[in-house]
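Schema walkthrough. Field components (list of strings):
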Amino acid sequence: MTAFAGWRMPLRYASETTEHLAVRRAAGLFDLSHMGELMVTGPEAGAALDYALTGQLSAVAPGRARYTMLCAEDGGVLDDLVVYRTGEQQFMVVANAANTGTVFEQLRNRAAKYDTTVTDATGENALIAVQGPAAAGILAQLTPLDLATIKYYAGTFAQVAGRDVWVARTGYTGEDGFELFCRPEDATDVWDSLVEFGASAGLIPAGLAARDTLRLEAGMPLYGNELGPDMTPFEANLGRVVKFDKPGDFVGRDALAARAAAGPRQLLAGLTIGSRRIPRHGYHVLADGRPCGSVTSGAPSPTLGAPIAMAYLDVGAEGEFAVDIRGEAVPASVTDLPFYRRSK
Amino acid sequence: MSVPAELRYTPEHEWVSVEGDSATVGITDYAAQQLGDVVYVSLPTLGAEVTAGEPCGEVESVKSVSDLYSPVDGEVIEVNGDVEDDPSLVNAEPYSTWMFRVRLPNGSVPADLLSPAEYEELTQSAG
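Field assembly_structure (string):
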């Protein structure tokens, strides 16, 4: 167990490598109840979110989800979010645990002039994710819902193990899978049922460590590593989340437009390493021996069998790349992201 | 978790086995579990002089990198290449996966190594 943003979290249940590979080959079960859930409801909920966030949430159909960001006036990223439209006048904004307070405060302030209510429902929601190629087959045994009708980045209310659950086909692993939002008092039953019905298909519980290597292989950013207040979405190659053509103003528009026009000075890239030593957060990246950026996340990739990393590199950096791993310049190759893409 | 009775220990979670004038060193089960899956081990070079309480190598896991400390003074007379080739041995069998051997000057063992009971108490108080 480990302390994480005020929660006690399972870092690993047994071996994080085994847990990682179970998600790639069968299924893994994650307790993500630390994630924040903020409910935005009312006639102008969509308009309020259009103003507060970079995306156009009013254009999202009920039952669909969007990956989006909350930016400051200067364009810096305050959090990356998944927003579910759970009803015509209801949105659920899922925030990173460490940022839930900031996101709640910002949404409330930014929504003040709209006919909408923002509430923090983190305490009323547990979140269990079942991820991996076997996830749909396992979940199908526990719900009357036809999962084939739930597309990627869609969700619906349904019964799972006899409990009321918001079932969403989303995740943070690069695999097919589902995220199940339920009442905390129902979470144990939902979890136990998934373990019971999934064990024969290879499902095992997986912790934060496996979640981190899975998302890294999938090239997904982690707030605090790839994203932060000194970065805009453009450095992270996520400019697509900024919808300049949506109607009305939104917080950060001018700064983001300026950054989009000027082009970022650094860009997120992938690195592979020709050694077993791990490039870690903050290590310098060198091009022909000169500093040209820094590592944001690094880990041994169980899928590739070698260390991988994401790093911000100066635009135009070229030459022989290396990572300064505690004083040793270890050769590295710059690669496109993601490192891993599942076969459909 | 119980620790082998025939070994001695350090607060940095190394175990030491003394036979004659040589000491064999590895890391404890507790250390392996705290680290998680070990992916890289860097051992001292053969012939190097190591000093008790000072770093002489590295143990790197998925989530962290830690110094490997020598529990004793002396010359490194053997290193375990198997553990460098397959670091997962550290997690699988921490007490049979030795890392390096040191020749003790005058065959003397430092008096401040922990007994099994003292080490167990240390890990329990650490939670």
